[in-house]
Every structure is written in C-alpha cells, then in structure tokens.
Amino acid sequence: MTVARRKFDAVIVGAGGGGMRAALQLSEAGLKVAVLSKVFPTRSHTVAAQGGIAAALGNVTEDNWHWHMYDTVKGSDYLGDQDAIEFMCRQASEVVYELEHYGMPFDRLENGKIYQRPFGGQSQNFGGAQATRSCAVADRTGHAMLHTLYQRNVRANTQFFVEWMGLDLIRDEHGDVLGVSALDIETGEVMILQARATLFATGGGARIFSASTNAFINTGDGLAMAARAGVPLQDMEFWQFHPTGVYGVGILISEAVRGEGGYLLNKDGERFMERYAPHAKDLASRDVVSRAMTTEIKEGRGCGRDADHLLLKLDHLGADVIKARLPGIREIAIKFAHADPVREPIPVVPTAHYMMGGIPTNFHGQVVAPYKTGPEEVVQGFYAVGECACVSVHGANRLGTNSLLDILVFGRAAGNQIIEDLKRNTHHKHLPGDAADKALARLARLDSQKDGENVAQVGDMLRKTMQAHCGVFRFADLLKQGVDKISEVAERVKNTEIRDKSRVFNTARVEALELDNLVEVAVATMVSAQARKESRGAHARDDFPHRDDDKWLKHTLYFSEDRRLDYKPVRLKPLTVESFPPKARIY
Amino acid sequence: MKFSIYRFDPDKDEKPYMQDYEITLEPADRMLLDALIRIKTVDDSLSLRRSCREGVCGSDAMNINGRNGLACITPVKGLREPVELRPLPGLPVIRDLIVDMTQFFKQYHSIKPYLINEDPPPETERLQSPEERAELDGLYECILCACCSTACPSFWWNPDKYVGPAGLLQAYRFLADSRDQATAERLDYLEDPYRLFRCHSIMNCTDVCPKGLNPMEAISRIKTMMTKRTI
Q: Residues in the active site (chain A) (predicted)?
C-alpha cells in the first residue's frame, strides 16, 4: 500500500506548552514546521496546570537561581542531572519575562511586577526560609500559558495538523530518525511526515492509573512510539502522586492552595504535616506529603465513612483571597466535591499526577541512548521535551511549578538546537520503503480482529493493576505479582477488537491505539519499579525504606524489545557551580 | 437513565438520526460525560470529543436538552429524560456529536488574538498595575469551547462574516490590555456592518457560557470604544 508523504524541516508531535514553545522558535526562524496534535492545541493538558511557573525573579522575597537549583536538586532526591538543573534554573527568569512579553496575563503586585506565591520545596539560601518563587495567573497559569503560546504561534503562522495522532517513529538502518507515520483522525488516512528533525512533546501518561489528575489524552504516546522504535525509557519507576486530587474524582486541587496558606487535616482535626515535616509542614515536597497522607489513612486517621481521605482546609484564607487567587479551585470544589471552600474543607487524596521518567535527553533536547560510544549518544534527528522527556531535571520527584518551567526552557532549547542542527543537515535522508509498514500492520490487525478483547475492559484492568501494585508505597510481593499481571494485560492488548470500523473520526480506533501506548508505559513502570531496591523520591519501597546512594544513585534505562534494564550514572557535575552532593533530605 | 443522541456517520449513514440508549449509571457517574463514556463502553461507535474532564480544555461542548454546555461539568442528575444530545448547532457535523470548528477558529484568528506591542521589550517584565490587570478578568479565561458562538442566531446566519461572541470576547481581551498598542487597528477591523455590528444583544452567549463569562458585555464595551473615538 502506498502512503501519502509530506516533507517538512521539522515535525513536532504534541501541541502543549513544550511543543508550542519549540514550534515558535522554529517558525520565527523561518523553518517549515508541522505541529501534530490529537486535540486542538489549546485543549492540550498544559491547560490544566494551575499553580504557577518557578523563576527566581525575587519580586516578593529575595531570590536567586542558585537557590532554586539547590531546591530542585534536593527535591529530585539527588537523581536529577545537575547540569540540566543549572541550565533550567539559570534561564527561568528569562523565559518567564519572554512569556510576559508575549502577552501572558500574569497577576500583578502593587508595583506592577509579576505576582509570585510560595510553593512546596522552595527555599531561600539553600534550605532556609520559605521562598516565594511561583509566578502565577490566579490558579489558571497553565491555561493562560497555553493560550498565550498558541496565540503567539498564530502570529508566527505555525502550521498545525489538528486532530492528528502520531503512530510510529520512523528510523533508518543507522537508527537515525526520519519522521513519523501519523493518522488523520477526521478522515482515517495514514500519512508519513518526513522531517530533518522530529521533536516529541507528547506529554505524560498518568492515565495508566485509575486515580489520575491527567486528561484522557495523556496516554504516553510519544514514549510508546520511542520504545517501539528501540529507544530506551528512563527512570520510569518515578511517578508523582499529587497530594491533593479531589477524593473520588481525581481532579487536581493546586498546591497553590497550600502556598496561599491552606493546610491538611486528619479526622481528629489535626494538622498532621507538622509531625512529618516540622519545618516546611504542608509545603514539604509532594512525595513527602503524599506519603504522610497515605500513612495517616493507613493508620486509621482518614476522614469520612470509609476513613479513606483527608481534608484540605482553606476557609481561614477568607472569601476575598479565595475568590481572587483560587477561583478555579473553588469552581472545581463546588462542582466536583459539592464543597464551597469559602466555608468548608475539600476532601482530597494522593492522586497520580506526573511522570518524572521518559525519553532520555540531554539539556539541548536531543534524545540520547546507549549505542557505540557510551550511554548518552545522540540519536540523530530525534528530540524530546516536556513530560515525555527525561532530561532529567526532576529526578525522583518534581517540585511544583517546575513543570511549566521545564517545558518553556527545554522547548526553547530544543528549538534552538534544531535550528543549529538543520544548518548542517541540509537534506532529508532516504526514507526506507517500509517506513509506514509497522503502523499500517497495527491498524490492519485492529480492523480485522475477530472475537478479540474489549478495549475499555482491558484498559480498566491495566489501570487497576497499576493502582494496586505500583502506588505511593510499593511492596516486594505486590510488585512481583504486578509484573505478572501487567504482562497478562500486555498479552490481551495484542488482541483488542473494535466494532466501529468507520474511517471518519473513529474514536474507538484512537482509544485502541492509545491502549497500545499505555501498556508500553505501564510495563516499563512496573519492571523498572520492581528492580529498584531502594526508596528515593516518589519511589517508596516498604522493604527498602532508605535511599541507597552506593548502589542506586543511577538512572534506569528500560528497553521494550526484551524488557531489559540498564543503568547510567547521574550527572552530578553542574555547568559552572559546585556540585550539590547527596545528603539526607529533610523538610 | 434514558438518552436520545444524534447520530451521523458519513461513512455509512445517508442522513442523521436520533438513537435511544438506556443505561444504568454507577454512583461514580456524576457528570454527563461519565454517562457518555459508559454508553461508549456498550457502543464504541458513539463519537465525541473529550479530554480534561474538568471544564478547562473546552473539548466536550454539545447541545444538551436544547442548551449548549460542557458534558464534563453538567451534573447528570436532574437532566430531563430522555436526555437529548445534539452537536453544537450551526456548524457542519463531522460525525455524531463532533462538529467542524474551522469557521469558529477562523473568526477567532481574524481578530489577531495576540498581544501587539512594537516597542523593544524591556529586560524584565512590562509593568502593569493590579487594576489594569483586573481589566482582563472575565476575558482571558475563555476556553474556546464555542458554546456561545453556536448559540448565537447572528452567528448561525453569518458565520463567515460575523466574528461571533467568542472572537469578540477575545478582541476585547486585547483591547483591554494596557500593554497592547493596536487599539486603533483592532477597532478599524471591527468597524464593519457584520464583524461586530451583527450582534443584536440577544444574550444567548452570556446565558450559555459554561465558564460564567459575559461576551455580551465585552461586545458592548467594544461598541462604546467605537463610539467614543468618533466623538
């Protein structure tokens, strides 16, 4: 079968903050860019980010990027690469000012500067007093940022392929990346998008868990495409459980609530975080707070009939502050928890939120993998940024408001790197004749499958398995069973069947393809988690409760083809400053 | 619970029809979107857009018992049965509840929805007082779901010429921004019998906005700006 083909200088898969920041760089440089997105760009999941963007502007309290760097290294439980972290924190102010110049409607201080609020894990002077570093647009920072970036891309005439889904990464016999095969969801047509540079900005995959703050579209598509094409996935055992998802629904309640002065209570009305983190209390790192909450529930101090959640109190902030600074939260609480936070607390529970792992890259956004010369050889023509990438700036635990920063800094950096690389790579490489065969075979299998598995049911089994076997606390026996169970799910995914065979906007087909991707992410997670025999950041093992720097201060690399694991060292050496050596992590 | 849902698949249907569904809701099915996902587990051919399921992405706008809204923040309890679901009115249907929004976005793009300021940017942020910033409240929060524009009879009649409430709300968002320098250019573009003045203050837009925004008021503010500059 012949497949239509189009050529671009660069193809970007994903139109969230990272993809659009990179696209802007390329469009403004006059390159021919195609940005593919499963949804209209402003519907990407960046839209749901609430609390803010970290940058040491120092508008409220004294601050500098070096303190921010320290907090990020400590927050990562020392698994973050310090060169990349320095790179990110140094550029933070610049990318935030740039966003303001693009028109971002930041909240303002009396002196007209950008409003900043405190957030978890942010300190002054290397672990001293609480810092005020999070640049915010009420509690809708992601929404404002995504729309601002889209608007700027409209100005730059970026070409979007809206409601197109990437199917597979195309590599040649040298392993160089040549583009992607993609599905036009509206017409059902498959096309090859050939490019001299291919950038993945496909976001996260926390839809592998039953209780997730993530949008339906967060199915780890980029990771699965990379994994199927032989690229390893890094640090997949590290998933952030956000302390405050709405109980029973999963929708995110921003850490900004605690940044503005809200706090958590157990059934005795005790502000229990004082026991777990005497200094930072409710603004300790997210992994610390989620573990404390899970422990409270496990020890019988949870709230409600089933003692299975906790309460987030903020009425003491007063109606004015809540309405001005947290209007979106109030709306969510009223609609989804039937609680008006002006008067009553919000029932919350730790909820899967963010994937620290992903496609391994350096801080230029270039994908790196072990090949001939070492563990971090550049995969030619392939780039990744944002949640789908693992630079790694978040290590074993991401700090709140560092994700929006991550996508701005590395979206721009990858854009600049692509511009440079394309000056040297002036021609498209030869496209193999079988470039789309794998994707076409998968679609053909799905269309002809008889007596197969139900996509919704298998998806449900996948999510329940991950939730039960790979949650906030991890246990040896549950992980071992989890590997078996998720392998069983993976077998069933091979035989999914859809009844809808229409070519036009076939969402059943899209969901089946997404399940193919989810299962890649789920297996990588379970296998990586079972192997890491220590507790670090968000990976908390019951049988190995302590961090073990002698054996485990290293990144995991998971290879899909044989589920093999490999490891590579953490980059402890920053670009210009002294290294922050691992030490006990106390909040 | 009973539903009656608009179905049309151009790949096989000659014309649209209404299909009845009856399903038993689980306690976790609080919103209309939960119910639709439950229906989809029985009939995977039912097609709709959805993503964030919390009312911020704007994907799942549809006509619910005659009124435009977002399925994900419409409580399913209390809806009149059978719940009649149709695609947003006035736009071409691609399939089932999915409409072609090309025209809607074309109008949004037409108003230059980006900050225009030709001064070289300062080293740090451009300053804006809290009062100036407050002018953008109720404007920047738009999620481009199209509930308003597709509830507007003027937009139904002239979707190619009338900017529509969503586009005009965003036009005002930039007119109201103290950092924007293109006021004259923006007003010039809108000074047209169709682009702005097809608004006849019917108020459907404000009535249906799932985010509680007021496009009607933004439109009248643009008209005031227009009048003021002629004096």
A: 286
| Domains with residue ranges and CATH for chain B | 2-99 (3.10.20.30), 101-230 (1.10.1060.10)
Nearest to A85 by CA among A570, A583, A419: A570
Helices A17-28 + A141-155 axis angle, to 10: 20
Give catalytic status of residue A196 as yes or no.
Answer: no
Mean pLDDT of chain A: 97
Identified catalytic residue from A21, A196, A228, A286: A286
Q: B 80-99 residues with CB below 8 A of A? A: 94-96, 98
A69 in a structural domain: no
Residue A531, pLDDT score: 98
Dump pLDDT digits (tens) for A454-477: 999 999 999 999 999 999 999 999
- Which pLDDT belongs to residue A363? 98
Chain A residues with beta carbon closer than 8 angstroms to that of B54: 48, 251-252, 332, 336
Q: Is A14 annotated as a binding residue?
A: yes
In-domain check, residue A140:
no
**Is A581 part of a structural domain of the chain?**
no
Give how many domains chain A has, as a whole number. 2
Reply yes or no on whether the pLDDT at B186 is more than 70: yes
Helix H or strand E segment including B54? none
- Of A296, A318, A350, at which residue does a domain stop? A350
CATH code for the domain of A340: 3.90.700.10
3-state secondary structure at position A517: helix
Residue of chain B whose Cα is closest to the Cα of A508: B44
Q: pLDDT for A334-365, tens place per residue?
A: 999 999 999 999 999 999 999 999 999 999 99
Chain mean position to CA A200: 13
CA distances, B122 to each of A46, A114, A171, A188, A444 (Å) = 27, 14, 44, 48, 56
What CATH code is carried by the domain that includes residue A446?
A: 3.50.50.60
Instruction: Determine the structural domain holding residue A256 and report its residue range.
Output: 241-350
Q: Is B208 helix (H, G, I), strand (E, B) or coil?
A: helix
Question: Closest-CA residue in chain A for B73?
Answer: A335
Residue pointed to by tokens 């919350």: A348
User: Is residue A345 domain-resident?
Assistant: yes
pLDDT digits (tens, 9 = 90+) for A96-116: 999 999 999 999 999 999 999
- Same domain, yes or no: A365 and A389: yes
The predicted structure's pLDDT at residue A509: 98
Residue with tokens 């010369």: A373
**Best interface-test mutation with A: which of B93, B114, B145, B173 has the largest number of A CBs within 10 A?**
B114
Per-residue model confidence as pLDDT tens digits over A480-502: 999 999 999 999 999 999 999 99
pLDDT of A186: 98
Which of A283, A318, A350 lies at the terminal end of a domain, its last residue?
A: A350
Among candidates A201, A114, A133, which has minimal Cα distance to A406?
A: A201
Burial class (CB in 10 A: 0-12, 13-18, 19+), B123: exposed
Q: B78 in contact with A at a CB cutoff of 8 Å?
A: no
Do residues A410 and A521 share a domain? yes
Kindly indicate the confidence band of residue A185, based on its pLDDT and cuts at 50, 70 and 90. Answer: very high
